[in-house]
Design brief:
399 residues, Aminopeptidase, Alpha-Beta Plaits, eight-stranded mixed beta sheet, 11 helices, 34% helix, elongated
């Protein structure tokens, strides 16, 4: 796909596009999942050192940070972040750079995210005409395992103090050459739950001799859907999805236990509080109604990804210089998908943007076995990072 004519690329990023494409295809062909990104991290570290950066490795197990100082004096520091991990998915693509690691695939574009930040870093390292310090964060384990949380807990921002932190994600369905961002919630929180209903097993032909956890679990499955509609203010958003249910192993035995698992998504901590409390109460009382008991495990994995207002306004201004004001969506509908960049935004102000990845034809959807990052975006994303760094560390840094 060709780059739209509205996009004004940074000349050095545009010239680097063929090399970035090679990097991206290498990363796509060699995917590594959460906390296993050893080869990926080594690839990134080698590039950063070749660009002349100081590199710290082993943060959050397999994460790393590169540091680039501008040639002008200045005390301001910012961080740009990319995620590196792949997913446990069997790739169905048949192109030359398809995964060589069975059951692992870059189905979310983290290969592209890593490449765009590497490209921008090379452009800035070749001409460090800015004031202050740029830290580039290459984070492991964004998918499910909270690599950002681990990096923050290990002292990421104590070791690398910054005034702001910035992230980006490709967004299939948003046209190539467009960028979406908004102040406030951009992505939802990610909670998980597991409810085990404990009953008394019996012969399926003699249910009166037991306490049927299957029936209780069935009622609970539908009752959980009342939480968003009957326990929350109509203008508050939440999703409660039961995604896994198991119990029993044959036709003629009522089991002693049935387990349900699922996820909860929201944009506010107060909403999470209500949903968790109601889920626990419904599990307990629904089970009791059928002579059973229930045990609940509830974990808050990722908080909501919330952009700060001033940083979002600045990012919108920078994005407009790249793609034009008419191609900026200032108020996209937030997604209930989750992103562990949220942990970084809870520590420092910043902004997370969506970069249009083009149509979703041929299964080009996030977490789909037919997905592939749009290579036309490499120069666009790298140009955005360069423009943002130059703005923050030249214009903002010299105030």
């Amino acid at each position: 796909m060709t780059i739209p004519t509205n996009v004004r690329l940074h000349p050095a990023a545009e010239a680097l596009a063929p090399e970035m494409r090679q990097w991206r295809h290498h990363l796509h062909a060699h995917p590594e999942t959460a906390f296993e990104e050893h080869e990926t991290a080594a690839f990134v570290a080698d590039k950063l050192r070749a660009f002349g950066l100081e590199v710290a490795t082993g943060l959050g197990r397999t994460g790393l940070v590169g540091t680039l100082k501008g040639r002008r004096p200045g005390g301001r520091a910012i961080a740009l972040r990319a995620d590196m991990d792949a997913l446990h998915i069997h790739e169905t693509n048949d192109f030359a750079h398809r995964s060589v690691n069975p059951g692992r695939m870059h189905a979310c574009g983290h290969d592209g995210h890593t490449t765009m930040l590497l490209g921008a870093t090379k452009v800035l390292a070749d001409d460090p005409d800015f004031a202050g310090t740029l830290h580039v964060i290459f984070q492991p384990a964004e998918e499910n395992e909270g690599g950002a949380r681990e990096m923050v807990a290990e002292g990421l921002f104590e070791r690398f103090p910054v005034d702001g932190v910035y992230g980006m994600h490709n967004w299939p369905g948003l046209p190539l050459g467009q960028i979406a961002l908004r102040p406030g919630p951009m992505m939802g929180s990610y909670d998980i739950f597991e409810v085990t209903v404990h009953g008394k097993g019996s012969h399926a032909a003699m249910p009166h001799l037991g306490h049927d956890p299957m029936t209780a679990a069935g009622h609970l499955l539908t009752t959980l859907q009342t939480i968003p509609g009957r326990s929350l203010h109509p203008l508050d958003s939440a999703v409660v999805s039961t995604t896994w249910i198991t119990g029993g192993d044959t036709w003629n035995v009522i089991p002693a236990e049935v387990t349900l698992r699922g996820t909860v998504r929201a944009f506010k901590e107060g909403v999470q509080d209500v949903v968790e409390a109601r889920l626990r109460a419904l599990a307990e009382h629904t089970a009791a109604a059928f002579g059973c008991t229930a045990s609940v495990r509830y974990e808050r994995r990722y908080p909501a990804t919330v952009n700060s207002a001033a940083e979002t306004a600045l990012c919108a201004r920078v994005a407009a210089t790249l793609v034009g004001e008419e191609n900026i969506d200032h108020d996209p509908m937030p997604s209930m998908g989750a992103e562990d960049f949220a942990f970084m935004l809870k520590e420092r102000p910043g902004c997370y943007v969506w970069l249009g990845n083009g149509p979703t034809d041929g299964g080009c959807l996030l977490h789909n076995p037919g997905y592939d990052f749009n290579d036309a975006n490499l120069a666009i994303g790298a140009s955005y990072w360069v423009a943002l760094a130059k703005t923050l560390l030249v214009e903002e840094g010299t105030r």
